[in-house]
């Protein structure tokens, strides 16, 4: 149980996907302007990360590795994720239209999101078992959610600020992201000491 | 546009990283050392060159509706090849790039150039475009990596720099330094270009999902109308 907790907490705080691994920067900078959009996007990411891991982990372990096809990992994973996202979108549209309305617009974006492909590949690289991989995906998704929500708060403060012309727009957003990321550095070493 | 302009536009005028703001994730992630920046630049350029040539050659064959999945499969194939080459001949680089090597698949520069240039232009032009864009990506990475490695580690490509080696600002090689250096570089580019090219919002123009993205980001405004 402790092991799951460690994986979970380190995925959320220490190896945060956005702020320390630099994965999923596009949605982090692009969709974090408003809180409700940030929430919608992050929920969609959590959802797709869990689904993608649930599908790609068995594919890698039971299909690719026994047949010595490990080198096909990249190409298979991206195809599986892309078709999975499409499938999920169609199913949601047909059966749960309310959920589709809130998450649907974000789903196609996630196909080419490096955070999703990243989490599936990292799960394999780290040698996680299926349960650990799922916990790691959930943690990564939650970490993404936390970063998005925090950062949308920071950005709403930036809206009204008087910023030098050259820094307006993206540059100041990146500098703000730098400071947000700095705050996450404070978590380094916390988890090891917590369970030591 | 002649071939010369086509080659050089990627390096300065339409630099993929600093002007078009594409491929942010790898730029931030691998610019911690000059070595990994050069490796990433070379790997991405190779993939971009191959994918641009093949996509341009097949531009009349691939049906328009399924072009994005086709491109992704082609790009993933080339990435796999590069991955195997790097693993075989430069294991140290494979170690340094880690997960970011397979993630070239989702690098917006590659899909972006396929969508913006290669599917409309001849094979030779597309190849030249790929070399220019690849060089621009590599140079931008090199610039960022130089700043970060010199300030953060006191070295450049492993060569120790006197004085700085004893006064490391290690935060520069960590995650916050990446965001900070990138933000300042873009601000400098904005200043030099006189705000002509400055991105008021985050630039996803090259991203194939830009349309949907903007719809998502501006959805509320449209509804309000």
Describe the protein in words.
The complex is a heterodimer of chains A (196) and B (225). Chain A has one domain (13-187). In chain A, helix 1 (2-14) packs parallel to helix 8. By secondary structure, chain A is mainly α. The model of chain A has no long low-confidence stretch (mean pLDDT 85). Chain A has helices at residues 2-14, 25-30, 35-64, 73-95, 97-103, 107-111, 114-125, 130-159, 170-185, 190-194. Chain A starts with a helix and ends with a helix. With 225 residues, chain B is mostly helical. A two-stranded antiparallel sheet of chain B has the order 1-2. Mean pLDDT of chain B is 82; it is low at 198-203 and 216-225. Chain B has one domain (3-224). In chain B, 64% of the residues lie in helices and 2% in strands. Chain B has 9 helices and 2 strands. Chain B starts with a helix and ends with a helix. At the A-B interface, helix 2, helix 4, helix 6, helix 7 and helix 9 of A face helix 2, helix 4, helix 8 and helix 9 of B.
Question: How are the elements arranged and paired?
Answer:
The complex is a heterodimer of chains A (196) and B (225).
Chain A: H1 2-14, H2 25-30, H3 35-64, H4 73-95, H5 97-103, H6 107-111, H7 114-125, H8 130-159, H9 170-185, H10 190-194
Chain B: H1 3-9, H2 24-30, H3 34-57, H4 67-89, H5 91-97, H6 108-118, H7 123-153, E1 155-156, E2 159-160, H8 175-192, H9 210-224
Antiparallel strand pairs in B: 1-2
Helix pairs in contact in B: 1-7, 3-4, 3-6, 3-7, 4-5, 4-6, 6-7
């Amino acid at each position: 149980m402790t092991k799951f907790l460690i994986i979970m907490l380190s995925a959320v705080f220490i190896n945060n996907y956005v702020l320390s691994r630099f994965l999923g920067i596009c949605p982090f900078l692009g969709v974090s302007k408003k809180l409700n959009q940030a929430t919608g996007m992050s929920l969609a990411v959590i959802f797709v990360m869990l689904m993608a891991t649930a599908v790609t982990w068995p594919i890698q372990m039971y299909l690719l590795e026994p047949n010595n096809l490990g080198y096909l990992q990249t190409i298979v994973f991206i195809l599986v994720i892309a078709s999975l996202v499409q499938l999920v979108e169609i199913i949601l549209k047909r059966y749960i239209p309310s959920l589709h309305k809130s998450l649907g617009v974000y789903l196609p974006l996630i196909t080419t999101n490096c955070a999703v492909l990243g989490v599936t590949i990292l799960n394999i690289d780290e040698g996680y078992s299926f349960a650990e991989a799922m916990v790691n995906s959930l943690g990564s998704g939650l970490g993404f959610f936390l970063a998005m929500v925090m950062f949308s708060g920071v950005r709403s403060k930036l809206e009204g600020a008087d910023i030098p012309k050259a820094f307006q727009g993206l540059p100041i957003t990146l500098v703000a992201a730098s400071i947000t990321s700095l705050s996450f550095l404070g978590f380094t070493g916390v988890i090891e000491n917590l369970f030591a | 546009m002649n071939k010369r302009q086509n080659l050089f536009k990627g390096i300065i005028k339409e630099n993929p990283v600093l002007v078009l703001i594409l491929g942010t994730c790898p730029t931030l992630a691998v610019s911690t050392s000059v070595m990994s920046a050069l490796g990433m630049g070379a790997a991405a350029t190779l993939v971009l060159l191959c994918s641009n040539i093949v996509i341009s050659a097949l531009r009349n064959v691939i049906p328009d509706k399924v072009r994005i999945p086709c491109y992704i499969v082609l790009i993933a194939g080339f990435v796999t090849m590069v991955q195997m080459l790097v693993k075989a001949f430069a294991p140290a680089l494979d170690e340094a790039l880690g997960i970011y090597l397979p993630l070239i698949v989702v690098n917006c520069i590659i899909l972006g150039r396929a969508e913006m240039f290669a599917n409309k232009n001849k094979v030779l032009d597309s190849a030249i475009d790929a070399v220019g864009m690849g060089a621009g990506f590599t140079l931008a990475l090199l610039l960022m990596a130089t700043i970060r490695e010199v300030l953060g580690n006191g070295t450049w490509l492993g060569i120790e720099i006197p004085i700085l080696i004893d006064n490391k600002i290690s935060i520069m090689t960590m995650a916050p330094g990446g965001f900070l250096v990138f933000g300042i570089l873009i601000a400098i580019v904005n200043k030099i270009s006189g705000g002509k090219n400055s991105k008021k919002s985050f630039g996803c123009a090259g991203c194939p999902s830009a349309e949907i993205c903007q719809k998502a980001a501006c959805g509320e405004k449209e509804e309000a109308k």
